[in-house]
Amino acid sequence: xxxxxxxxITFLQFVFIISGIQxxxxxxxxxxxxxxxxxxxxxxxxxxxxxxxxxxxxxxVSVMRKCSEKTLIDAISxxxxxxxxxxxxxxxxxxxxxxxxxGLVRAILIVKIWLMPNTQAYVLMxxxxxxxxxxxxxxxxxxxxxAEFVAVISCWLPFVYLFTLKYAHWLNLLPFLKxxxxxxxxxxxxxxxxxxxxxxxxxxxxxxxxxEKAASALFLSNAVTMSVYMFITIICFIYYSPxxxxxxxxxxxxxxxxxxxxxxxxxxxxxxxxxxxxxSLVWIPCMYIVSYCIRQIFxxxxxxxxxxxxxxxxxxxxxxxxxxxxQSDKLQHWLIWFGFSMEYxxxxxxxxxxxxxxxxxxxxxx
Length: 366
Known about the structure:
- The protein is 69% helix and 0% strand.
- It has 366 residues and is mainly α.
- The longest helix has 36 residues, at 325-360.
- It has helices at residues 11-22, 26-38, 45-65, 72-80, 82-114, 121-137, 140-153, 157-160, 182-187, 201-204, 214-240, 242-245, 251-254, 268-298, 304-320, 325-360.
- The protein has one domain (5-360): Amino acid/polyamine transporter I, CATH 1.20.1740.
């Protein structure tokens, strides 16, 4: 059993970590992708994705409640053997590495386009990873406190979009279901990538103080995620219209260029700067989970060394190669299927296996 006293996280910290992983760089292009999939009905896919995530969350919590306060890696090692546990740790590490890398790459590309076009990508990677390393090194408790801090300083961001309502046309949302329900169902696929991150519960659950509230915490985190996505999507649809949103790669940034204040010329500059804090809630927890899994694989005393190696590899790799937006889109498409397998299919299979394992071996220490 792992020691969680020094790294315990509260209910709200757990909520902010999970919703922070979900509300990431994907929000920038989500209105465009929903408009491409279902036109003006694209926003209807979000509640359906919310229901799907609630089912997934319940299954994940049910799995972790049967693991006797162990991480899933430790539980699998107990049930299936040491090497199967290491293989599972490697799969989790690869999954969260791709989530982390895609978030970092997308953030760097956005910063280069909107803020610092002449800065080299590896320099931006270094600037992003230096504070991220210090936070991830502190473990779940420090990550949880950082997530609370980000939630407080970024709560003003949605209110900026309210200034666009005077130019809004609510008729852009009508008629409802003009092409039937099939396009809406097709658009649900576009909500998978923006809501990935629930499998972080496999590692973070033992650190939650009140584990009986885990299901409520996941419900709240999913509700926060869906509310943000719904708000941003509808704002873009009623301002640009779903058809015009298709022509903007990141419509929620482009819409800021239309907002004018007397005291600031370009509102998108401080917006992106503050939103980098929100972006960081993707790669910081993922950095910790990746280094934790590597620690488990090689049976190290601390995740410090894997974390340092990870940061060094990211900086050196970015010096030689940085993906383009098109290549990042391909990575996101691949992550949809990888994430669907990790967060929807795998937990269901694990729950069935653990139930059978406990029935066949009632005296098991699991």
